[in-house]
Structures are given as structure tokens and as C-alpha cells.
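Chapter summary example.
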Amino acid sequence: MKYYITIFLIYLTGCLYSQNLVLNPSFENYKECPTKKGEFNNNVTHWSTSNYGTTDYFNTCNVNDLCGNYNYIGYQKARTGNGYAGFYTFAPNNYKEYTQGQLKRPLIKGKQYDITFYISLSDCSSHAIKDIGVLLTEKQLNPLNAKFIHLKNLDKKQLQYTFTSIENKDFYTNTTDWIKISITYESKGFEQFISIGNFDINRVLDTKEINENVQIISSYYYIDDVSVTDTTLIKKDTIVPITKTKTVDSITSVFKTNKINTFKNLEFDFNKAELLNNSITELHELYKYLNENPSLNVEIYGHTDNIGSTTFNTKLSLKRATTVSNYLINLGLSKSRIRAFGFGSTKPITNLKANASKNRRVEFKLISN
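The structure predicted for these 369 residues follows.
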């Protein structure tokens, strides 16, 4: 029986995927692995941007902190596969970004379709929104000379389109899970491109402040798994939504105030001060804890082993502590709440050469105001 259930699930999964009319729906296929901001447009296969906005592409093919799971705007894993996108839905001067995808074929007039996608708010957003729009067009929109797509500027004599605003009763504030957004749409018969984002000017956009400590006032969402499915082909009750959460090792349970805490997995290359990828998880955990406890300040302490000169080790330990400090500041922590110190090799925790690596560490102390 177990064998047949497995085969059925494999069949059902393949069936569901094959019925999705969105090409490259989870952003897995690309021309080049992203190495900098704004490498979504015409790099992700069958996807582009609807205006001149620099929508971002993230993929685990990237091993640095800019365009992988640990990226310049926060932390998130792809809901499925290795790739996902990210865009601003609220930013100064009405700047907004969009994802524009291509369908396998035009929708059939009169048929009903389920339009579904998943979003997650970035860690470094100052605000959340509750209004996401879906623009369906007959042909691909070329990047417009505009900060955002204003529907009043679209000429129906030149372009067939329909627009649906999906307003949720609550703000999309979740920075951990992927949140499902879904509507049922009746086709007009010409739609072959889908653009997703926010289409409101800032003065009418309903926003909620969630983080006052970030440097840029904005709302930035990750997006993954876009689908457009004929509702007559698949019953809704056969689709079981999958929600993935961050699988990180939490250290918040062992935070101690006014005592020395040691990062468990904070790592640097030998004689360097650049953070390695597996170091970022704990920094995000610490930032989140500090953000939730504004009465606390933090001091960062860098330490080295005794290999090398005293002067070099002191400078290196301070550089590493400063790197950690700057990372937390870039996430949104106020500079006034953090200080960095370098102790070199003056405070070892072991004198055994076999365990000298334990002396190469970064510590921190949470201090009550």
C-alpha cells in the first residue's frame, strides 16, 4: 500500500506542476548566477521587470552574502528549489519594483484560474503592506520611464490588460515563513504575461511600521512559486500548501544579560576579517533579539590566538569585532547601541596548543541601560 501511495503522490506532484501555466515558476533557471543587486531582469529565464526597477534575484549558487540565502536585505531560504526573487513594494519617491513572468500560452476566455504566489517580508524592512497587485497583459511590458507602474498611464487602446488588487485584512509582517497569496480569476482571453507588485502611490498606500531602526524607510518582499492554474483541471482540495520556516540554530535561549556570551559558529578565514556564510545566522538572531529589546546595548569583543605579533593580533581582533558591529548596524541597529573592542591574544581561554583554536573567538555582552 505504501508503494502505491508514493507512486500516486509522485504522479500528483507532476500533474500539479505540469498544469501550471507560468514558465520557470520558482525562478530556478537563469543565464548567470547572481553576484550583485538587480540581476533579475532578463537573467531569470522567462522573467523580466515591468518598469525600470532593479528587481533582485537570489540563488544558492551564490556563495557570498549578497545574493544567496543570507543576502544584503536579510535572510530567507527559497520556498522550493534554490532560487527566488525580491522587490520593493514601498520606498521613497514612489519607487517600486515588479516581477513580470510569461505564461505558456494565453488564457482561455471565460475560464477560471487560480493565481497563487508566496511572499515573505525581508528582515531589513521598516514597513509592511497588505496590498499586492496582479497585472495581466497581452504582451510583455518593456521597462517604462517611471518609478512605478501607474495604471492611469496604461493605454487600453495600445495594450489589453486587467488588474486585480489583492488586499489582505492584515499586514504581511511575517519575516520567517512564506505566506500564500491566492485569488480566483476569470480570464478575458488575451492574458499571457503576469506582473506582481504594488501599484499604489505612497500617499494612498496603507503601511505599518514594524522596525524604526533601519536606515532606509521601505517595504521589501521576497517572492517564490508563482502559479496560474485552470481550476477545472485540478480540484482545490487536492492542493496542500507547504510552508517552510527558517531552519536555523537558535541561540536566543542562551542569551545572558551583563555576562559574556560567545558566538558558537562565528567564523573568519585565517588572518582575515571577512565573515563566512555560516556566521550570519547568529548575527541575525542577535539583531532580532536586540530589536525586540530596545533597552539593551551590546559590546563586541574580538580575540585571537598567540600566533603572530601582539600588534598584528590586536589589530586583527578589532577588525573582526568591527566587522560584526558593522553587520549589525547595516541590519538596522543604531550605532549608539553597539561598541567594538579588540583584545588580541591577551585573554585566552586555554593555554593548550592543541586547543588554540578556541582562543580565536568573538564574544559579546548585552548591557542593560
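To summarize the output: The longest strand covers residues 219-230.
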